[in-house]
C-alpha cells in the first residue's frame, strides 16, 4: 500500500512518545476550534509576516505569495512574504522561532526544515517540536528525477543498467547537502544499489542549469523547475518522487511503481507559528487556508505551479507528517552518513 501524505503516528527520537502525545494534543486544539475567536477577534491589527525559506522566483515562493495574498484578505489584513533562504530552511526557521508568539510572525515549513534538518545538522538553532506550533498543511508537492538527454538514459531501468556498468561514474546534483533533492536521489540509489557521486549546489536552479549544460548527469527538482526543461527536450524525466503520477508527465512512473515501496512520503509545505501562539489565531489561519483551496481561481493558480491541495488541514496533519518523516528519514540519513556543520 502506498504511504499517504499524512500517515499514522508512532514514536521516534525526535518525537518521544510522551512529548508526541502532548504536541499532537496541542495541535488538535486549533483544529477543534474553528468557531468563535473570542479574545482574538481583532486579529490582525497589523501586517502579518510569513517567512519563506527560499529565494524569490521559485515554486515555493509563488505558492507563498498566492497564499499570502488570499489569506490576508480572508482574515481582514495584510500578509507579507519575507524571503530568508539558506541552510535548507534553517535560517528562516531559527529566525521565526525567536519571534513573539502573537500570530504576526509565521514560517513556511517543509520536509527539509521541519523533518530532515534535525538529523542532518550537527547543531540547529531551533527545535521543530519545542519551538513551533503546527498550524496547517498548505500544499502538497512532488519532485521528479531528470537526466541530461545526452546520457541516453530514458528510464529507471536504463539508469540502473548504466550506473551498475560504470560504478562511480554517474553523478547527480542537488539543491544542497541534506536537502530533500539530495535525499530523494540518495534513497533511490541505495534502493537499487547504485554507486553515484553527489554534487551539492546552493539551490535547485543552478543544479538544473548544470544538468542541461551537461556538467552533471542527474538531478531532482520540483515540477516547476523540471517540466520546462523536459518540454525543451534537454532533460528526460525518469521517476516522480511522490505517490501520484503527474498529469503533464503521464508516462513517468512514481517511485513506488518502480519498486521503492518504502519511500517515506510526498513532499509538503505547511504553516508553523512560534510556540504558544493563541489557538484561536491558528484556527483562523487554518480556516483561511481551507477557503484558499476552495476558491476556483486559487486552485487554478496552484495547478499552474503543480501544487496539490492537502489531504487534511489543521495542526495534527502537519504534526503527523513530521513525525512519520522523522521516524523514516532519520535512520536513512544516519545510514547514508549525511551531516552538515
UniProtKB/TrEMBL annotation:
Q: Would you say which domain of life the source belongs to?
A: Bacteria
Transmembrane spans: none
Q: What span is annotated as the signal peptide, if there is one?
A: 1-41
| InterPro entries associated with the record | BUG, Bug_dom1
The record, for Pfam families, names: TctC
Protein family according to the UniProt entry? Belongs to the UPF0065 (bug) family.
Question: What PANTHER family does this protein's entry cite?
Answer: BLR1237 PROTEIN, TRICARBOXYLATE-BINDING PROTEIN
> What protein does this entry describe?
Tripartite tricarboxylate transporter substrate binding protein
Amino acid at each position: 500500500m502506498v504511504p499517504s501524505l499524512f500517515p499514522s503516528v508512532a514514536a521516534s527520537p525526535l518525537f518521544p512518545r510522551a512529548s508526541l502525545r502532548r504536541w499532537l494534543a496541542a495541535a488538535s486544539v486549533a483544529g477543534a476550534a474553528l468557531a468563535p475567536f473570542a479574545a482574538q477577534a481583532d486579529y490582525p491589527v497589523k501586517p502579518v509576516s510569513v517567512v519563506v525559506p527560499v529565494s524569490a522566483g521559485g515554486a515555493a515562493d509563488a505558492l507563498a505569495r498566492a497564499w499570502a495574498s488570499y489569506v490576508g484578505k480572508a482574515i481582514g489584513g495584510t500578509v507579507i512574504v519575507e524571503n530568508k533562504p539558506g541552510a535548507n530552511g534553517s535560517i528562516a526557521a531559527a529566525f521565526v522561532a525567536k519571534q513573539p508568539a502573537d500570530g504576526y510572525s509565521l514560517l513556511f515549513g517543509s520536509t527539509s526544515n521541519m523533518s530532515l534538518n534535525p538529523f542532518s545538522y550537527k547543531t540547529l538553532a531551533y527545535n521543530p517540536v519545542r519551538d513551533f506550533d503546527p498550524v496547517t498543511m498548505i500544499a502538497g508537492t512532488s519532485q521528479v528525477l531528470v537526466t541530461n538527454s545526452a546520457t541516453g538514459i530514458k528510464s529507471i531501468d536504463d539508469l540502473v543498467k548504466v550506473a551498475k556498468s560504470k560504478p562511480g561514474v554517474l553523478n547527480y546534483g542537488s539543491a544542497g547537502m541534506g536537502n530533500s533533492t539530495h535525499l530523494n536521489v540518495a534513497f533511490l540509489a541505495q534502493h537499487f544499489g547504485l554507486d553515484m557521486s553527489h554534487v551539492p549546489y546552493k539551490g535547485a536552479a543552478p543544479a538544473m542549469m548544470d544538468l542541461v549544460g551537461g556538467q552533471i548527469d542527474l538531478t531532482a527538482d520540483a515540477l516547476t523547475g523540471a517540466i520546462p526543461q523536459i518540454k525543451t527536450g534537454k532533460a528526460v524525466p525518469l521517476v516522480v518522487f511522490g505517490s501520484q503520477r503527474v498529469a503533464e508527465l503521464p508516462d513517468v512512473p512514481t517511485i513506488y511503481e518502480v519498486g521503492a515501496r518504502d519511500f517515506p512520503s510526498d513532499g509538503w509545505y505547511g504553516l508553523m507559528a512560534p510556540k504558544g501562539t493563541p489557538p484561536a489565531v491558528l484556527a483562523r489561519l487554518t480556516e483561511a487556508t481551507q477557503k484558499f483551496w476552495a476558491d476556483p481561481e486559487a486552485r487554478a493558480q496552484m495547478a499552474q505551479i503543480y501544487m496539490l491541495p492537502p489531504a487534511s488541514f489543521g495542526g495534527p496533519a502537519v504534526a503527523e507528517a513530521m513525525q512519520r518523516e522523522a521516524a523514516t528519514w532519520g535512520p536513512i540519513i544516519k545510514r547514508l552518513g549525511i551531516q552538515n556543520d
